[in-house]
Each structure stands twice: as C-alpha cells, then as structure tokens.
Amino acid sequence: MKQYVAFLGSINVGGNRLKMVDLRDALEREEFTGVETVVASGNVLFTHEARPSEGLSEKIAYVLREYFSIDSFAVVCDRFQLGAAIDNNPFAADGEDNLVHTHFLEQSTTQTLFDAMLDAYQGRGPERLALGDDMVFIDYAEGVGRSRLTPGFLERRLGTRGTARNIRSLRRILDKMVV
User: Fold this and answer.
1) How far is it, in rounded angstroms, from Cα 160 to Cα 141?
2) How confident is the model at residue 15 (pLDDT cuts 50, 70, 90)?
C-alpha cells in the first residue's frame, strides 16, 4: 500500500457541496484506506495499492460522479511528487505562503498555450506565472480575491481544468504524509 494525496477540483465551490465525511465513506467503500480529508476544499490523503496516478484520478472522478453526481476531477500525487511541486515553485522562496499557489492541471498543456495565455493576460494584473510539469505556478501578489486571473480564464487559455492550492496548505499536507 502506498500513500497519496488527491486534490479535487471544484469541490465546495460553485454549488458542488460535499460533506467530507460522506466523501471519506464513499472512498472507503471503493477500497481506499486510511482516508483523511484536510480542510473542506477537496484535499484527501489515502492509501491504496500502488498504481499510476492517472488510474487513481479516474477512480476518484468515478466516485464523485457515481456517489454524488459531481462532474469533477482529481489530481493525485505521492509524497515525492508533492514535494517536487513545492520545491519547483519558483515563487515559494520570495512570495508569501498564502499567495503563492501551485495550480495542478487535469491534463498537460503546451508551452505554446501557456505563452498565449501570458500574452492574453499581459497588463491585467501583477501576478507572476511559470509553467511546470502538469502545473502552473502562480504568485497572486495582491491576493487571489482581487486577481483577474480566474480559474475560468486559465482553463479556457490552457485547454484543461485545474485546481490550485497555496504553498502553506501544500506544506501542511506534505507534513501529514508518511515518509
């Protein structure tokens, strides 16, 4: 058995309300063990037989759809992948932990789409952005709530859905994962 974290997209926002206790119960019925939710925004720690992250992502999306009628997605990472998502964020060293985010992508995007998104956003806000492997690193310098860099804008421009977590939350989740 291996420990993973799943970051669920669009949970407890936009009408997709879900009690974490109900999510834990549903995942346990589908052979996930050691299920623990971290805050009510769709962060789930669990253990499962080792398998590719894509297979686990699909299985969690199935649970959300079948048990709760929620069309969402999950990005699944092991401890090593989560640590890399934190360490590779170029803004983590000099940005504020609550403003620096990793925006995990459901699917890969291209450098061309990322560059076009940067061009389209030019002059609209002070955010700093960088493309990583299946993620976008963002420093919301003046706050997420004030930003014009919305999830919808990112999705339309990058051609894939995503879900973001700030560095503070990611570090807290990493600390909960077993070594």
Assistant:
1) 24
2) low
